[in-house]
C-alpha cells in the first residue's frame, strides 16, 4: 500500500482530466492578470494609442520635417492648407509640427512624475505598513501635510518660488521643476495605497511564517510583501500617468509650468488662449492630442485594474 500511493499521486497529478486532476494549477497573480488583460479590447485600443504617442515622441521626424520653432508672421493665423494641415498659430508656427514635437516634453513629464510619485510613495507606504506603531503614525501624519495642499495653489507657490513670471529658464531645468512639483504634491496618495496593501500583507500567514523562521526585515519586505503589493500601485501609476499629463497642461496654461522655448501641448494651449475666437485651430488641435493621451492612459489603467483585481471578476 505504501509503495503504490506515490504512483497513484503521480498519475493523478499527470492527468489533468483524471481523478487526481481536480486541483487546477495557476500561474499566480501576474500570469492570471495578464491572461485577463489580453482578452480585453479596451487594453489593446489603449495600447495602440499609447504606442502611436510614444513613436511620435521618440521619432517626430517620421511625422514631420518642419522645425516647430520656425515662424512666419506673414502667415499668422493662416487656415489649414497643404503646407500646414492644422493651420498656423499667432506667431506663424506650423501647428501640426508643434503638436507632433510637443508629445515628447508632455510624455516626459508624465513618465518622470509617475515614476517619482510611485517610488517615493511606495517606499513611504512600505515603511509605514511594515513598521506600524509610532513609525506608521509619523509617516502618515507627514503625508497628510502634503495631501492637504491644493494642487493648483501648491504648484503656484512652489514654481513661482523658483522662477519669477517671464523669467527665461532652460528646458531641462523647467521640466525638472515641474516634475518635482507634481511628485511633492502627489506622493501621499501612492503612499496610502501601498500602506494599505502592506498592512494587509503583513497579516498573511506566509509573512508570519517567514518571521518565525528568522527571516530579516529586508528579506520579508523584498521577497514576500513587495511582490504582493505591486498590483494596486501599478494600476495607480498607469492612471496617474494620464492625470499628470493633464496636470502639466494645467500648470503650463497658468504660465507657471513649461514655457517657451519648450514645445508641449500645454504650452500651445496657453499661447492660444488669448486669440481663441480668431485662431480656434491653435487651441483645438493641441487640446485634442492632450485629450487622446489622457484618455488612452486612463483606459489602460481601467483595464489593468479590472484584470488585476480579483474582486472585480
UniProtKB/TrEMBL annotation:
Residues passing through the membrane, by range: 42-63, 111-131, 143-162, 174-190, 233-258, 283-304
Localization, UniProt: Cell membrane
PROSITE patterns: ABC_TM1
CDD domains, per the entry: TM_PBP2 (cd06261)
Keywords per UniProt: Cell membrane, Membrane, Transmembrane, Transmembrane helix, Transport
InterPro entries: BP-dependent_transpt_permease (IPR050366), MetI-like (IPR000515), MetI-like_sf (IPR035906), OppC_N (IPR025966)
Residue spans of biased composition, Low complexity class: 1-14
Predominant subcellular localization, coarse grouping: membrane
Membrane topology field: Multi-pass membrane protein
Residue ranges of the region described as Disordered: 1-21
Positions of the ABC transmembrane type-1 domain: 103-301
Family note: Belongs to the binding-protein-dependent transport system permease family.
Name of protein: ABC transporter permease
Amino acid at each position: 500500500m505504501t509503495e503504490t500511493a506515490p504512483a497513484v499521486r503521480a498519475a493523478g497529478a499527470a492527468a489533468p482530466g483524471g481523478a487526481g486532476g481536480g486541483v487546477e494549477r495557476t500561474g499566480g497573480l501576474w500570469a492570471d492578470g495578464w491572461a485577463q488583460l489580453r482578452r480585453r479590447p479596451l487594453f489593446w485600443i489603449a495600447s495602440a494609442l499609447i504606442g502611436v504617442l510614444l513613436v511620435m515622441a521618440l521619432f517626430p521626424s517620421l511625422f514631420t520635417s518642419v522645425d516647430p520653432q520656425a515662424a512666419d508672421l506673414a502667415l499668422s493665423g493662416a487656415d489649414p492648407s497643404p503646407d500646414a494641415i492644422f493651420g498656423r498659430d499667432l506667431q506663424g508656427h506650423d501647428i501640426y509640427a508643434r503638436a507632433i514635437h510637443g508629445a515628447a516634453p508632455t510624455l516626459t513629464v508624465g513618465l518622470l512624475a509617475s515614476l517619482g510619485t510611485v517610488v517615493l510613495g511606495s517606499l513611504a507606504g512600505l515603511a509605514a505598513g511594515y513598521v506600524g506603531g509610532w513609525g506608521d503614525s509619523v509617516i502618515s501624519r507627514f503625508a497628510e501635510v502634503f495631501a492637504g495642499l491644493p494642487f493648483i495653489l501648491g504648484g503656484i507657490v512652489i514654481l513661482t518660488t523658483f522662477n519669477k513670471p517671464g523669467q527665461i529658464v532652460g528646458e531641462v531645468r523647467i521640466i525638472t521643476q515641474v516634475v518635482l512639483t507634481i511628485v511633492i504634491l502627489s506622493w501621499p496618495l501612492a503612499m496610502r495605497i501601498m500602506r494599505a496593501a502592506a498592512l494587509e500583507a503583513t497579516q498573511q500567514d506566509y509573512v508570519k511564517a517567514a518571521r518565525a523562521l528568522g527571516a530579516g526585515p529586508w528579506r520579508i519586505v523584498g521577497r514576500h510583501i513587495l511582490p504582493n503589493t505591486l498590483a494596486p500601485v501599478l494600476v495607480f501609476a498607469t492612471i496617474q500617468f494620464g492625470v499628470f499629463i493633464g496636470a502639466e497642461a494645467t500648470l503650463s496654461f497658468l504660465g507657471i509650468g513649461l514655457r517657451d522655448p519648450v514645445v508641449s501641448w500645454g504650452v500651445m494651449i496657453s499661447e492660444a488662449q488669448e486669440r481663441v475666437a480668431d485662431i480656434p485651430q491653435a487651441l483645438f488641435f493641441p487640446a485634442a492630442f492632450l485629450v487622446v493621451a489622457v484618455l488612452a492612459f486612463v483606459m489602460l489603467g481601467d483595464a489593468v485594474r479590472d484584470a488585476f483585481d480579483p474582486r472585480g471578476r
